[in-house]
Amino acid sequence: MEMKAIKVNKALDEAIPMQEPIKVHEAMRYSLLAGGKCVRPILCMAACEVVGGDESLAIPAACAVEMIHTMSLIHDNLPCMDNDDLRHGKPTNHKVFGENTAVLAGDALLSLAFEHVATKTRNVTPQRVVQAIGELGLTVGSGGLVEGQIVDLASEGKQVSLTELEYIHHHKTGKLLEAAVVCEAIMGGGNEEDVEKLRSYARCTGLLFQVVDDILDVTKSSDELGKTAGKDLMTDKATYPKLMGLEKARQFAGE
Amino acid sequence: MEMKAIKVNKALDEAIPMQEPIKVHEAMRYSLLAGGKCVRPILCMAACEVVGGDESLAIPAACAVEMIHTMSLIHDNLPCMDNDDLRHGKPTNHKVFGENTAVLAGDALLSLAFEHVATKTRNVTPQRVVQAIGELGLTVGSGGLVEGQIVDLASEGKQVSLTELEYIHHHKTGKLLEAAVVCEAIMGGGNEEDVEKLRSYARCTGLLFQVVDDILDVTKSSDELGKTAGKDLMTDKATYPKLMGLEKARQFAGE
Fold first, then answer.
1. Residue A251 distance to chain B (closest CA, Å)
2. What is the pTM of this model?
3. Is residue A186 within 8 Å of A231, Cβ to Cβ?
4. Where are the annotated coiled coils located (chains A, B) (predicted)?
């Protein structure tokens, strides 16, 4: 399992070599190679193999998913957004490189994600590559990460229902995970039925993933957690533990 | 000629219908449909037709180019970047919708650009679509718009050589124009030789385009120009007129 994460991290390292202008490449690499990248690549590549594809077909799209995920972290952490100082125990991108470089590093990563799939995928029909790019695109824009973040920002300081919370998390976390799995099923040569089965499976997994993350936020200290602990409570953001109570959220995650 | 711009604007309007969450779609549409979109679509679609392709093949990629261009304007205008209040005579995106929505609207437009080419292009082989997406990707990231903006930001308040200025403008303006032309030559069914010829042609055009823009900045008032006039001089940014003197820059543009 861990081997898959290592392979993706190696491919990510090679995808963004240090070059001029140094600062933006350094900023891109700082957040992209910050570690903690296990769940998504492993799920991704498993989806490719489940439909009978070789692991190697899955790596460029797995890299793209990590690039998109990293872009959304960098932008969501900005002072004008969630204003987060720590992530995985390290200062956030804008804290180290400044706000302007952080915005640009995110833009460059987002664009590189699509370019990388288009130019680095081998032994997959162009038709499948185009289809995968379409799926990836859906996860970012106004129906994905961006939509989730807009609704999340609007929810600060307000009473949010469980349905609204699920909506936010589905868009901010679930959709990318879902697209990752779907992309890899496409890359791996899966037929339409397989792809749709895996899409449903990934939808459930994505939700679980977020509940666990929310629980970690209230129960762990900043040191263990690597992001400002309890911050979601402080800024009065909607989380599962806040809405359901910690014990119920734990139970929900257990189920 | 104008008909082409009208067709692209109609396609852009349809690409982003007003829907929930309203605020981000409104922000995307505000800057994308702000008018002034003539040069790029016309050049784009001409490139498609030059190689014998029907105009309809060119429209999705022309839309993508406008989305990428708009994203870069929205992000470059942010307070942490160039801090511009006016663009085409209208308040900039963050002035109207707030910084966080402006960042997200840019992200959504960038992602939609790639998704749009992947999902809306008709009657072009998937191989050509993948190739065009790869070309578009190169214009944004660390070798394109982002690189230009990083170097541009670093140049404020410094003495910049003409070579450095050309480097900035090539990355911030020229590369997208070049990619637009190249993409459309690919979509139109051009062979490798045609595509490379058009690439060289577009490279020259892109440079000229920026010189004219710089001259307009010093000679026109804010009212005529639609952006804070003389702002490049105020912030001591490198421009052609500053480096060459206004008369020489005019002469250079004339050539």
1. 32
2. 0.87
3. no
4. none
